[in-house]
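Re-run with default settings, no changes from the original entry. Doing this only to confirm the output is reproducible before filing.
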Amino acid sequence: MLNTLSSLRVLEFSHAVLGPACGLTLADLGAEVIRIEPPGGDPTRSLKGFGTGYYPFFNRNKKSMVVDIKSAAGREIVQQLLATTDVLIENFGPGTMARLALGYDDLVAAYPRLIYCSLKGFLPGPYANRLALDEVVQMMSGLAYMTGPAGRPLRAGASIIDIMGGTYGAIAILAALRERDATGQGQFVNSALFETAAFLMGHHMAYAAITQEPVPPMPERVSAWAIYRTFTTADGDLIFIGVTSDKQWARFCELFERADWLADERLASNNGRIDHRDWLLPQIADLIARHSTADALRRCEQAELPFSPIAQPEDLFDNEQLLAGGSLLETVLPDGRQTHLPRLPLLLNGQGAAITQHPPQIGEHTRPLLLEMGLTDGEIERLLVAGVVAANEKT
């Protein structure tokens, strides 16, 4: 269990993935993260399709408090919470928080130590007021072009820009907290989807600057490594094999019993193997196709090569590396089912994140937090009746 940020209180005004991913990073590091949900709860809870997994994964280790921030009484509750808050995270549409008098400019005078993290589609510029989604900026940045074959742009198979944008937001928050330690002052920090996607394109932009040529999409690129692709085994399975050094090439030839390739001077270097890919790769493909999947993988492991079978997401539940390393956390989903989901991919002094709070029910922590603020049971009942707050009384 990580308690690195246990002294921090975070208010999270968010939906979907970008804001919740930022809050998740801080929560897994031990911060008290309070999600302020609207009456009825965050609509992300009821998304279908690929959105089904958003809420249960990105909202563990958080508290849920339902407050109608469109009401004056609801905003007063938020103001009281801000008196004990270190960080505010929001990823609502441009201008939303300001219209509710909860923008940074509205709060900075009363809460000068507050770190205010605004996560948007774009950083300041001509697109600042546009709405954006993960898939939109993958198209805008060239990421979708790089992922799919020529003429067939394809978004990545996970919400990587939302997740990375949220992670960069968390990094900005930590940097601002470090500065607050020195100055005593909070500040406004930004992260955004489009600029995150552009950052991920940086090495491709550098390639274009150096070569002065259009960058080919990944399926049509000439890899830096001669052997760096998928092959089909005798079982009809796809496996990925990489040979990224001359020592690995020697071990590959030895373990796959091709001493003749090792003796061929044309293939002695990686660049030489690239020059002869046209005839070499079909022969390697034919070689792998004569081995079972298990045998090919065993030989790759003995040769100490980078390799992998082609997995699907559900295969990760049984992955021996994740299980042995404790990298899957037992999680109770909002509907009561139990599963295992990945923990934050880092260790501090050998210790990883744990779950102290399963994804909360709607308003699960409303009453305890209001009591902590000093409200009486009678005052809370009046707020409940008025619809200013909502509480899950079963927990």
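The first helix runs from residue 18 to 28. The chain has a mean pLDDT of 96.
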